[in-house]
Amino acid sequence: MFEDFLEKKLLEIENSGLLRTLRKAQDTPESKINNGNLINFSSNNYLDLAGNKDIAKTSENIIEKYGFTATSSRLVSGNFAIHEELEAQLANFKEKEAALVFPSGYQTNMGVISALMSNEKESCIIMDKLNHASLWDGAKLSGSRIFIYKHCDMNSLEKVFKRTRGYKLKLVITESVFSMDGDFAPLKDFVELCKKYEAVSMVDEAHSTGVFGKEGKGLADIFGVEDKIDITIGTLSKAFAAQGGFVCSSRKFIDFLINKSRAFIYTTAVSPAICAAALKSLEIIKNSDHRRQHLHAMSKLLKNKLTELGFDTSNTQSQIIPIVTRSIENTKRISSHLFEKGIYIPAIKPPTVPKNQARIRISITSRHAFQDIEQLCNNLKYFK
Ligand SMILES: Cc1ncc(COP(=O)(O)O)c(C=O)c1O
């Protein structure tokens, strides 16, 4: 009975062309980049810190001291000095009073949104239409009423604000660099509108931390609005090349989360070894202007070449460069062709992106070289 149910469900997914499968391990290691086997254009290892020996060494030393696991929740006996050190440094990096670390970026978004929001009549969440699944899942879990504005469209946001005047608590959520389009939220206008309508602003900097701004502080630093954002989210799993997520905000909000966020309270604390890795990453990230410059140069080069070839790269302004084909079949065909030629870029299909928005999502890291971009473009031009 259970087996039949599963078979039917899997068949339905397969028939719609959306079956997800894990590839064999040959695709995964970053180490294969430039080793002649596979050029990996799929990872979020933006500053090429995965596999960094100094990070590994720092982490190893902490494992020797504490072991690997924190063994219990932060509120039980899992609160180590290294958690507090990491949080203090992250808060300082993001120019906020305090920070809180979670086991993943996904869990951070779930834990923050669902702690703050509820189905109370007087509160609502306002979302950019293209926000990441973790933001949507947090919003849905909260039970709050949800309003949507058009992607990055501040006129649309203002219209929503006018419709929601009666709500006392409004949480407005955007990503800074969007994970599937690589475009920027207009953060200056965003925070100004939030202030005007007395709403709480939340910005997810998962794909911009480490990559943009002074010392890699994020896109908010470029827009000069870091201190105007109420809640800043980051992940330790992308440019940081460690694991986990974090929220930076006022001391009061962090104290509130320690009391109310179930995703923080009812889970084992992040491993001290991971905290050590993240602390070392942070030090490296701050001193990585050379990596950022190269990353931006390679991203610009690829974007220009793809535009010249006539591909639709959406409105990307970052290291995330989509080629929007719209057709699932074409996307899969391009991805398979590239794989045969030694280039790994997975096909991105709904529901990760909206219907008719299938794409390949290229992500550049500071490890990519001019020749990698050339090789990619030479293989892509057959599809134009
Ligand atoms: C915008 C955004 N927020 C949060 C996350 C989740 O972060 P993590 O991978 O650390 O769980 C992602 C992951 O892709 C993301 O793109």
Describe the protein's topology.
Elements: H1 2-15, E1 39-40, H2 53-66, H3 81-93, E2 98-102, H4 105-116, E3 123-128, H5 133-142, E4 145-149, H6 154-163, E5 169-175, H7 187-196, E6 200-204, H8 219-223, E7 231-235, E8 245-249, H9 251-260, H10 262-265, H11 272-286, H12 289-309, E9 320-326, H13 328-340, E10 343-344, E11 347-348, E12 358-363, H14 370-380
Parallel strand pairs: 1-10, 3-4, 3-5, 5-6, 6-7
Antiparallel strand pairs: 2-8, 7-8, 9-12, 11-12
Helix pairs in contact: 2-11, 3-11, 4-5, 12-14
Pyridoxal-5'-phosphate is lined by residues 104-106, 109, 132, 134, 175, 179, 204, 206, 235, 237, 245.
Notes on the structure:
The protein has 384 residues and is α/β, with parallel strands linked by helices. The protein folds into 2 domains: 22-47 and 289-383, Aspartate Aminotransferase, domain 1 (Alpha-Beta Complex), CATH 3.90.1150; 53-286, Type I PLP-dependent aspartate aminotransferase-like (Major domain) (Aspartate Aminotransferase, domain 2). 42% of the residues lie in helices and 15% in strands. It is built from 14 helices and 12 strands. It has helices spanning 2-15, 53-66, 81-93, 105-116, 133-142, 154-163, 187-196, 219-223, 251-260, 262-265, 272-286, 289-309, 328-340, 370-380, and strands spanning 39-40, 98-102, 123-128, 145-149, 169-175, 200-204, 231-235, 245-249, 320-326, 343-344, 347-348, 358-363. The strands form 3 sheets. It has a 7-stranded mixed β-sheet, sandwiched between helices. It has a 3-stranded antiparallel β-sheet with strand order 9-12-11. Strands 1-10 form a two-stranded parallel sheet. Helix 5 links the parallel strand 3 and strand 4. The mean pLDDT is 94. The structure holds pyridoxal-5'-phosphate (PLP). Residues 104-106, 109, 132, 134, 175, 179, 204, 206, 235, 237, 245 line the site of pyridoxal-5'-phosphate.
